[in-house]
Amino acid sequence: MPGENLSREEARERAALLSVDGYDVSLDLRSAVGEAPGDGPRTFRSVTTIRFRCAEPGATSFADLVAPGVTAVSLNGRDLDPGEVFDGTRVLLEDLAAENELVVDAQCAYSRTGEGMHRFVDPEDGEVYLYTQYEPADSRRVFATFEQPDLKAPFRFEVRAPEGWTVWSNGAGERHDGVWRFAETKPISTYITCVVAGPYHYVTDSYSRTLADGSTLEIPLGAMCRKGLARHFDADDVFLVTKQGLDFFHDHFDYPYPFGKYDQAFVPEYNLGAMENPGLVTFREEYIFRGRVTQASYERRANVILHEMAHMWFGDLVTMVWWDDLWLKESFADFMGSFSMVEATRFTDGWITFANNRKAWAYRADQLPSTHPVTADIRDLEDAKLNFDGITYAKGASVLKQLVAYVGREAFLEGARRYFKRNAYGNTRLADLLSVLEETSGRDMKAWARSWLQTAGVNALTPQVLLGEDGRITELSVLQEAAESHPELRPHRVAVGLYRTEDDALVRYARAEADVHGPRTVIGELAGAEAPELVLVNDDDLTYCKVRFDETSLATLKARLGSLEDPLARALCWSALWNLTRDALLPARDFVDLVLRFAGRESDIGVLQMLHAWAESALTHYAAPEWRETGARLLARGALHELRQAEPGGQHQLTWARFLAAVAGEEPELGLLRALLEGTERIEGLEVDQELRWAFLLPLAAHGLADEPVLAAELARDDTASGKRHQVRCLAARPSSAVKDQAWAQVVESDALSNALVEATIGGFVQSSQRELLAPYAVRYFEAIDRVWAERSIQIGMDVVRGLFPMLQDSPKTLDSTDAWLSTHEDAPPALRRLVLEARDDLARGLRGQACDAGATAAR
């Protein structure tokens, strides 16, 4: 990664100097097929013409390009020596004129890491598929560019591709004389340009809309995937959600979709969930389901589709000046994804998933040492890469949900409408959005922004109930706390719900909505109410906070959580209990016990899946070591019991089957998984499809019950790209020191594996049942990460540093080793130090949880 960084100050200086009028990019991708070169990387020809102006004629600047070689460079008709002006990452531009034309003829490399022009060979049929992925700064791996979001310009692409291929880009395209030429785009940022090429399976549809002026907006729709996935591709459902989303955004934004066509490409080996390239959105192909999945998976896909669609306005039409204001697109898209999904699609319970799932990501991120304000301090591109995190996405979205409660729904939407119209095709900062919201709401948005957008950390809200002799509430107050490291006490718009038992169900009988300020706020409306069994602060999930409970409420939940009738209230309570566990205020075994007793009654399948993930994490990281074996046995037997009790063929049955595979470690559970694979035993209604087969094989491999021939035979059944990833994961999971050494070498010592296979190998390597086997790699990890970060792409570096941190060696010794590395590497790249600091914090939190859990044993 050396030399590839770009600082904020460099970007500011260049933006003050240059303005870009347009790009013409010509790519020759015919080299994607055929024999690889004998030496060096496989490359393609990229010829870029950039027309731009300079505010100070005679000045010096640079263009960005990451490429193995440059054939020719000309500036304003003058041929420049590539060896003198190109250093591998930048093209030096001296003596600029007022108006300039730069032409760069380069040999760019195909990628195996999901960055730039990614090349994938399908093992099923040998076909080659290409796609680009750029955010935040990888378009420079495909063409010469001014790689920063505020130097927007129109783009014209032309692409030469192998015979039989189709090529797509942001604009509509046609093929003439072997060349695909695409319509010029509107002014957009470099990172959202896109090319997809190959023999993709392509399905079309269309959307039409009568606009306010009586005209008709016609949007051609397309959706594509690899040919090998075509039989699984439910494009009709993708189009249904797409049309529902377009209706919603047209209804509420009063700004017609501005980018012509709307293609959606599901592509292989994708690092992200999706990317909002205007006119050509790219998604990870795992959103095409090869086997049976629950409604939660369809909801998640719908949310991502709508998230990316919201970006067409928040991010593509109006773009932040620099990555400090990344929230101006990601927070809004995350919020609008759930908002539109709940109001426009069949997934009307989406706010439950938001409260239980998305916010969990935010709460974790906001308590790490790397937490930052929603509007972050992004010094350079490496900072930007790491800030696509739970703060920017989920906390920012939660803050916007609070904002809607604060200013009102219509004021919020009217602010968005004015924001689009004033800043279309331009770049903005925080102040631009706040000014329109002040207009529409009449509120002081600067004070709100200082508290919510410009400070870090999460507050905890705890109810305090005083009862009179008549058993009624004399006073109910909400106490607000903040961590010492981030002491800001914020204004919260909250609902406080009171619950009691009626007909054997916990139901809400009183509710008050109020503004919470400072350390203590009295909720006067609830005085005189009957004594509650449960007080739920932040009922209806209006604000962003950690919910705490008074003693009576916590006792009620421990006894009767499953009888809490409202699914959103139940999800909020589960989330609060998990936060108590992570904060070492609730023993991990108590949380596991709650899951064992009440998860079987959970109606919301997304919440149930989250509970399974939390229970597994509680056992792996927060339970006292001496209780882990007992806890694992309890979870496995509980999962088996629920599996047998679940409705045959239902999604709860499938979810419990997957959880059983995740926690099985002994007989009879492992034996049942093997019997289900072999067909010697059946559970009524449970279809063991190919994806479930791989899920069952992973624990069998990890416990030495599925060897290499068994896994090879399974790959023969499923000789696909997905099957290969599963096999690689299972192979790396086997309990053998030789296997672990090989997996380590493949990931750390070699760059031969693609990004997807690196991820699969790491996933198999790290098995919670193999702590002793993995112990030697703790030392090797700290010896290797400097070199990995220096030599590999930032995406692979992140995968290795995060994925191989010795979290399972959860002892003070590992904490000391981490501190020793940090103290001796103070000059390491900030992004690398951040990753290690985050892992250290997770480890320390786990150790505190283990101490809490061990204390529970002593107390009992």
What does this structure look like?
This protein is of the alpha+beta class. The chain is built from 28 helices and 28 strands. The strands form seven sheets. Strands 5-4-7-2-1-10-13-12 form an eight-stranded mixed beta sheet. It has a five-stranded mixed beta sheet with strand order 15-16-17-19-18, with helices on one face. Helix 3 (235-253) crosses helix 5 (327-344) and helix 25 (777-791) runs antiparallel to helix 26. The mean pLDDT is 96.
Topology:
Layout: H1 8-17, E1 18-28, E2 43-54, E3 61-64, E4 69-75, E5 78-80, H2 82-85, E6 90-93, E7 99-109, E8 116-121, E9 128-133, E10 155-160, E11 166-169, E12 173-176, E13 179-182, E14 195-198, E15 201-210, E16 216-225, H3 235-253, E17 262-267, E18 274-275, E19 280-284, H4 295-311, E20 319-320, H5 327-344, H6 350-365, H7 381-386, H8 391-407, H9 409-423, E21 427-428, H10 430-441, H11 445-452, E22 460-467, E23 473-481, E24 492-502, E25 505-516, E26 520-522, E27 534-537, E28 546-547, H12 551-560, H13 567-582, H14 588-598, H15 605-622, H16 625-645, H17 651-663, H18 669-678, H19 690-702, H20 708-717, H21 721-733, H22 737-749, H23 755-765, H24 771-774, H25 777-791, H26 794-803, H27 812-824, H28 830-859
Parallel strand pairs: 1-10, 16-17, 17-19, 20-21, 22-28
Antiparallel strand pairs: 1-2, 2-7, 3-6, 4-5, 4-7, 8-9, 9-14, 10-13, 11-14, 12-13, 15-16, 18-19, 22-23, 23-26, 24-25, 24-27
Helix pairs in contact: 3-4, 3-5, 4-5, 5-8, 6-8, 6-13, 8-9, 9-10, 13-15, 14-15, 15-16, 15-17, 16-17, 17-19, 18-19, 19-21, 20-21, 21-23, 22-23, 23-26, 25-26, 27-28
